[in-house]
Amino acid sequence: MGITFRKETFRDDFTFRNSPEHIRRFPFPFHEDAYMYAVNIEPHVVGPKGSVLENLIDVDEHYVAEMQDRALVLAEDPLRCQSLPHMTLAGWDLLELLMEQQALGYPEHFTLTRDGDRWRWINRPLGIDDTFTFGDTSTLPYGPMEYITRQSQGDFCILDQRDGNLWMDAGMVTTQADWSLDFDIGMNFFEWHAPVPLAHEKGIFVRALKFLTNIQQGKPARRLNWTMTINPRLDTSPENYHKWGPDRATVTPENVGDKVHLRVELQSFWRLPRSNGIVFPIRCYLIKMDELVTQPKWARHLHRVIRDLPDELANYKGLTRYRSTLVEWLSKLDDGSPTNPGFGPD
Amino acid sequence: MAAKSIISRPVYGTLSPQPGKHHLFITDAEGALAIAEMAGSAPPGFFDDAEIVFIPGPDGKHTAALQALRPAQFHLSPSFASLLPRLRQTLANAHMGLRLYLAGTEGLIGQAMQVALEAGIDHTSIQTEHRGSLARRMQCVHCKGITENVTTQPATCAHCGLLLLVRDHYSRRIAAFQGVCINAEDRSEIPPMEEVFR
């Protein structure tokens, strides 16, 4: 049996939901009652069956709907997918990685067969069956990065490594938490992180860069990041901020549970074999408060984290306008009892 | 001088003569004074291998001061846009050993650096010195239009009309600061507009 893909939307009528199984596998990002930046990077190894780490590239029930939303974003704004001229080889590296991982984890949905440079890729959920020559861009309908990332959940940044730094030189970014690939493309690691408050002073980026530039082939790493989004909207780009920003003013005590979503990014980092670049998939998971609080431990953790978050971070994450409404709502689900450490549900 | 800011915001230095075979100076308005001052510490004959391109400010001053340096080539340009075709060809034909010096307003330095990057010159090899106006080039993140000479915070996008927060986040590739809608969450909030980039 394979995954049952949901028919749902991430805009307009917002029909996105998580099934009960997907609520329990949600990658909850807080293992204690407080949150502060840390270089929380760990080896990206396979985790428990039924978790989002069961496969290193996760495909879930939202796959088809997410790919449809990506196509809508790209039709509206093709600048969300860009690759500087020297990044084509890295695009082929990424195509290989994603085809291999998706075929390995979900053989009922994806099949890759290779005969030398002649490759056949079957993607059953999206109805794709293409034969192409690996390394020859003219045999694909898009460049290799765009082709495969139109068929893979999450945003993807490809980083070129040179001069001891990482450079954001290619990417497919349609589900971002408020940063612009079009503006940041070509920047180095410190430059594209420049607007992040507090973390530079803590030396976070210096240590993170050191770690990332040493990532070896076959030994990927990962970390979690989080923010909050009003309505299950994937495209919270700065480009469209004037369109989705007003949502933040619509949160009321009555609709918190339905409108406010925790947005977790599972970021992983992989060395690419031919280009020596790093690919940085940013896989986005959304869960509405009503779904999240079905796990009482998560409700208690989240209440304490949001309540005690430094104002600067709350502001950066865009929570300021509805934070007090959310904390008030969550407080009713927090009996003050201690929470067990750890990420998992009850 | 520009105040200390975030890491993506460019930092400018003080021009100094570099070892090289050929020296290209691109400057506007009071940037000419930075070159004249640097000339004091330049070795004899330095300007024999130099080209100076000058976009005078509205007051038309400093042309004579630059001509007095007797560069091998001296070119006056009425605007950066009019300079572009010439500059692109110069950089495309440049050989190893060319040194680039940019002096003047942030807009001039940023746009000249953008052309140099497109020609394959590493930005860290370029000498820069900021003189004169702090007015910003701003790209609207929403409509992608560039608004020149922004002096206020917030500022109105000259293309789509949104009221934008002018961030310190800067792209060398676009040669512009980022503008993001300041009242996206509630359009009825109109913060006062202050003259801050002079």
From TrEMBL, chain A:
It comes from the Bacteria. InterPro entries: HODM_asu-like. Pfam families: HODM_asu-like (PF11927). This is DUF3445 domain-containing protein. The lineage of its organism: Bacteria, Pseudomonadati, Pseudomonadota, Alphaproteobacteria, Hyphomicrobiales.
UniProtKB/TrEMBL annotation, chain B:
Residues 137-180 form the Dimethylamine monooxygenase subunit DmmA-like C-terminal domain. The keyword 4Fe-4S does not apply. Pfam families: DmmA-like_C, DmmA-like_N. InterPro entries: DmmA-like_C, DmmA-like_N. Residues 5-126 form the Dimethylamine monooxygenase subunit DmmA-like N-terminal domain. The keyword ATP-binding does not apply. GO terms for molecular function: 2 iron, 2 sulfur cluster binding; metal ion binding; oxidoreductase activity. Keywords: 2Fe-2S, Flavoprotein, Iron, Iron-sulfur, Metal-binding, Oxidoreductase. This is Uncharacterized protein. The lineage of its organism: Bacteria, Pseudomonadati, Pseudomonadota, Alphaproteobacteria, Hyphomicrobiales.
